Amino acid sequence: MSKPAVTELLQAAVTAVAGTERPGQAAMAEAVAEAVETGRHLLVQAGTGTGKSLGYLVPALAHGERVVVATATLPLQRQLVERDLPRTVEALHPLLRRRPEFAILKGRSNYLCLHRLHEGVPQEEEEGLFDPFESAAPTSKLGTDLLRLRDWSDETETGDRDDLKPGVSDRAWGQVSVSSRECLGASKCAYGAECFAEAARERAKLADVIVTNHALLAIDAIEGAPVLPGHEVLIVDEAHELVSRVTGVATGELTPGSVNRAVRRVTKLVDEKSADQLQTASETFERLMELALPGRLETLPEDLEYALMALRDAGRTCLSALGNTRDKSVQDEDAVRKQAKASIENVHDVAERVLHCSEFDVIWYERHERYGASLRVAPLSVSGLLREKLFTDRSVILTSATLKLGGDFNGVGASLGLAPEGIGGDREGEETETPPWRGLDVGSPFDYRKQGILYVAKHLTPPGREAQRGDMLDELAELVEAAGGRTLGLFSSMRGARAAAEELRGRLGLPILLQGEETLGELIRRFADDAETCLFGTLSLWQGVDVPGPNCQLVVMDRVPFPRPDDPLMSARQKAVEETGGNGFMAVAATHAALLMAQGAGRLVRATGDRGVVAVLDPRLERARYGGFLRASMPDFWYTTDPNQVRRSLAAIDEAAKQA
Asked: Per the database record, which ranges form the Helicase ATP-binding domain (predicted)?
């Protein structure tokens, strides 16, 4: 019996979710089916409202081989596992004559550890605390959270932190979870047979579709030890986030706090000589970090080199000692030893990595107001890593609403290790360094030119290093007033968002919410519930707000969001492009800004009835040579630089919303 056509399957799935099939969704499904069948790679830009999850799930389920779907955000993972997959599987079952299984898989620290829960927290975390699990009436927030976790452990089937409602603090969760390095292993753990993380892995091994996150995908690719079951197809949703997530996983960090923690955990388990060696190295490193100034280290200072050599050598000595000693007086010594080993391995490995870094690594000091200085090392580029680890032995489909930057896919493709579209080897012929791929833009169901206006305030002074731009704040106040509130303010820095909120709270009789003054979820809820309310903030708002309807009719960007000139990693990447004859500014800074602006502009139109304005209060978007590249990355709104026109339009949209 022949397989049903992907169009027939898609129609059944769309009907099951009470949706409407869209041309872009159908085009995407057919392209994904072709890529899966031929083993080629595909980049698909699918605008908001396309229904891209069904566009890839239907052909993936129809293929019959194991598929991994990796997303960047928790809401999308939940949507896939709790809504899209159950309905799609049910709809396709009669046509496929089989019922595909699906499962979600996360990193080990996302699951409750029964060993930690029942045996307690090893070493120093317990010091100075009451025993929370024996106290009938804990008085602290931590104690209350821990008792809730104990009760929840008897009820939960998954042990997944994200299934705990309401949630608990990171500190509380840290008491009942372990990293993969700290885990005893199912065969050595008294609770191995009941382990939530192991159960999730077993479910994943039996599933046809495994939903995971970018970070776990990166760990699976980078660390060599397979975390995900073998699979023939990889689908990366929210793919515009992949490079930054992989970079985060590939970044090593040393802080005085992490080194001191390793010292506390290790010294009780090793001989006095090894402990003293580690303590001395730790003190030397801490004194050095007190004087560290933020910025890139193009060469390793001699004092830092000596400090790292001392840490590395002391770490190696302690690791050796940990393997040779046993202390029967320490209750549950295996767990204590495993945690100590994980801490000192991290110190040793990062010190070794910095000492032997190559031209393809970037090292820098970073300083945080609360946590102090840290030493970081990251790969100059992850493109080679992705090309080697991601695009071999499987078909890869990457999708997002923002993959075309400046009008084509080549910028995003290059960051993933792909040659310009159309250049590359054929899998059926000789192997080449760059795998073949295809880019496809399936458009959006929205009529952007009729639904939205892109306004650039070209008459303003360009942003500089000054703390405030008076004319920009005047312009912002006039736009918000014309819109009657209804404004999402996207700022390139928290300082800018705070200054704007304070200024407009004094000028306008409208509620102005500011990121950081409440949880993000609560701020977005309040913004969505009240038409007059405005919400100002920075990075997470550029990509994380979905408020369809009349309560978000003005999206304002204070400036083009270029990376900070002193950002060590971005500036190093820009310099590397220039040294090979490329345009570092366009390849790195402009591409970074284009991606954020495309995401930010996408906050405006979330449904077919939405109307509004995206206002960019930075004249460079109109005047600078790179302005056209940035505008081409944004939705195709009707374009104007006339402030009077845009204020009249905002007032009309506001009036129409009030009459509705």
From this structure: 11-288
